[in-house]
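User: quick one, fold this
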Amino acid sequence: MGTMKPTQLNTNAADAVCPAHAATDHPKIPKQKIGVLLANLGTPDATDYWSMRRYLSEFLSDKRVIDYPAWKWQPILQGIILTIRPSKSGAAYKSIWNNEANESPLATITKQQTTAISAALGSKYGDEVMVDYCMRYGNPSTKSKVAKMVAEGCTKILFFPLYPQYAGATIGTANDEFFRALMDENWQPASRTVEPYFDKPEYIDALAQSIERGYANAPKKPDILICSYHGLPERYLKEGGDPYHCHCHKTTRLLKERLGWASTEIMTTFQSKFGPEEWLQPYTVEEVARQAQAGNKSIAVCAPAFSADCIETLEEINEEIKESFEHAGGEDFLYIPCLNDDDAHISALCTVIETNLAGWV
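Assistant:
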């Protein structure tokens, strides 16, 4: 295996200068900056079979996501799952694909969030803070964006996985990839990671505002709000101590308190079950059917674990889960979009960022 070439500083950058007190022939280096690197789950480059296979192989080979021994899991993954699943997943992505930009909605929205956060921080800190984004799986990779920030003169990087609640399979693996990227840097920047922000008042308030807008615009008030979170195997909670389950339930409780609702008006469920194991329950796809059968013919669903709409919300919730509800006799299904680049959401994220930049700016 060849050695990794260190990142080269961008000595041609417009703000490159000779360091103070350096010799006159010292090469110019970029002005020192602070990088804020936003991170999201990832996205395939396209919806064709091979693009989907590459993306799914990277995602499902992550030991944080599927922790079975490689000798047991990889033959199943490479021989069976990645023969069948890319076509099915590609069709699902195709149903929500942003054809104009030729990218997934997650990529589009993450770019919009980055632009909005960059503008907000730029108005306060000027060019002292550089904001960019990366994906844990697919492109742009975490490694490429860390290298870019170092080349542009970032001597400090704040790494911000855009997940409100902590799970090893989300924040944990995103941080792992960030730390691996730092290992390849000859001149490592100082670094910080952002803790989960599910209980921050600004985030809960932004979430509550989106619910209030959704209800105000609904033709009929929903009987109940289903807060659907991405699932995890129960084993991760019971054996590994992952706090995700607790973080999700606390998010729902804080949202309920902020809205001033009764416990009967809101509940927590989990979606996206994969494989034969028991996952966190109740399962959203089953619970919406139970609600319809119990007489709650009008429901709303939101996804507080996702900072941006993606395949799990636009296709799974708004198509598969909606179909389960209607098939069981449900009548009015309201999906309340993720916070995306909503002004209150961007303001909440900026507050989290500024708190974590304390002492650096």
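User: anything notable?
Assistant: Strands lie at 33-43, 129-138, 154-161, 190-193, 224-230, 266-271, 298-302, 332-335.
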